Amino acid sequence: MLTAEQNRFITQVGPRTPAGTLLRRYWQPVALKEELEGKRPAKPVQVLGQHFVLFRDQAGRYGLLDRDCPHRGADLAFGRLEDGGLRCLFHGWLFDVEGNCLEVPTEPEGSKFCTRVRQRAYPVAVRNGIIFAYLGDGEAPALPSLDCFIAPDEYTFAFKGLMDCNWLQALEVGIDPAHASFLHRFAEDDEANDTYGRQFRSASADSEMPITRVMREYSRPEIKLEETSYGMRLVTLRRISNARTHVRVTNLLFPQAFVIPMSADMTISQWHVPIDETRCYWYAIFTSFGGPVDKKKMREQRLELYELPDYKPRRNRSNNYGYNSDEQALETYTGMGHDINVHDHWAVESQGKIQDRSREHLAGSDKAITVYRRMLTDAIERNGAGETPPMVLDQQSAKSLTGPATVDGIGPTDRWEEYWKQTDSNRRQAAVWAASAPSAYVDGDASGSRTLALVRRATRLVD
User: Fold this and answer.
1) Most buried of the four, 221, 260, 364, 376, by CB within 10 Å?
2) Are 232 and 175 in contact (CB under 8 A)?
3) CB atoms within 10 A of CB 7
């Protein structure tokens, strides 16, 4: 339980707020690459309560600028893409992707006035279908060598979805391993040939038992936490018998992402990015260790659930998430369809636009949420004091931060730790693109001893 003041401290993200200042130290997803693949590759975006224009110039370079023209504040999101940049409609001022003013056509011939004007521009990087931007001051940190970043394009698929609530409660559902046994419970399991691209619907590794059955029948997991150089590893154990245990390994990637298994050969890396303080987007990269991803099928599946251009879920607050009492009685625990993203949307949006954490009562199964809030609060305070927060990486540290490992499988009860590490290693050795990658569960001190010390303070009591 937090006080109202503590809750504001970790949820407010606008300019000059403590949490907002921290989040600006990291690369933030700002759009899917596919959003700039139309006839006019420019669009307005709002991130962390700020307004920007994102565009691709005629040379294929991406740029992110403040949305208001520095001349008289007109909206650059309507600008013309021409002559090597983005031209304001009001007076024709032209800006390139770096914010340089290339032309002020209303000034006299030969005028050097444009050399004295700049629009603020932000570093942009594209990784496997997601456009990231660095919105903070100073030099941008290096991006880590995560599986979802280093895998070839054909082994990945990117998508996003709009959530009508604060970013923090959207993130916290992903580090809550216990909820899947109830929120995502199904009365019947799918056929094995109908599970591609659908989370929780396939079988666990080394078993024919569907994940949905495991979650349904074993609802009292043992949750273990471990500090890592990137944030936190969660190991969730569901004992099936004296001989066999279901082992699920997931990760918190500080500050606002998680990496989880989708199936035996596919992972999900998912960021939760504030639009403002009452809305956010989830951005996900699905990464395959088996074969190339069927991008067409994955996209079609999700467009059945989300509407363009805003990627708003078709089942949402306005239509009660498609709730059906007959379905709830016979098919699903929620009565809200078979897509678990809808279930998650209901769970976190029903908490309110910004959850009132002064009214909650966390239990032992919420230990990851408790630890993460301590980590986040500590990082906000230390960043405010001028210290470098966790996961603000230099080039060398970024190269050494790989993985992280995720596993969903059934192995021997007495050797579950050895089992999941070997399972991850076997998958990497079998994957064409990951065969030479280092073992993801051997985590170096990728962000310095100060980071691990911070995490250890936050994770004193985790078992």
Assistant:
1) 376
2) yes
3) 20
Residue 395 sits at the vertex; the CA angle it makes with 146 and 174, to the nearest 5 degrees, is 30
Cross-strand pairs, 122: 64
Query: How buried is residue 333: exposed, middle or buried, by Cβ count under 10 Å (0-12/13-18/19+)?
Result: middle
Count helices and strands (H / E) in the chain.
12, 23
Burial of 92 (0-12, 13-18, 19+ CB in 10 A): middle
In DSSP terms, which residues pair with 45 in a beta bridge? Answer: 52
By the 8 A CB rule, do 279 and 164 touch? yes
| Cβ partners under 8 Å of residue 101, min gap 6 | 70, 93, 94, 95, 114, 115, 117, 118, 119
Structure tokens at 20: 């907002």
Are 224 and 238 in contact by the 8 Å Cβ rule? The answer is no
Report DSSP letters for 304-324, one per residue: TTEETTTTEESS-GGGGGG--
**Could you report how far apart the first and last alpha carbons of the chain are, in Å?**
20
**Residue with the larger pLDDT of the pair 166 and 188:** 166
In 181-303, the DSSP E strands lie at 222-227, 231-239, 244-253, 257-261, 266-274, 280-288
Q: What is the pLDDT of residues 34-87, one digit of tens each?
A: 999 989 999 999 999 999 999 999 999 999 999 999 999 999 999 999 999 999
Cis preceding-peptide flag for 309 (omega within 30 of 0) = yes
What's the predicted TM-score (pTM) here? 0.92
Cβ contact 316:306 at 8 Å: no
CB 146 within 8 A of CB 287: no
Phi, then psi, of 257 in degrees rounded to 5: -135, 160
What's 105's DSSP letter? T
Q: How many CB atoms lie within 10 A of CB 327?
A: 17
List, in order, residues 6 or more apart from 154 with CB less than 8 Å away: 292, 293
Beta bridge partners of 95: 86, 101
**What region does 321 belong to: left with phi over 0, alpha with psi -120 to 50, or beta?**
left
Alpha helices, H only, 66-178? 147-150, 167-172
Tokens of 355: 């959850």
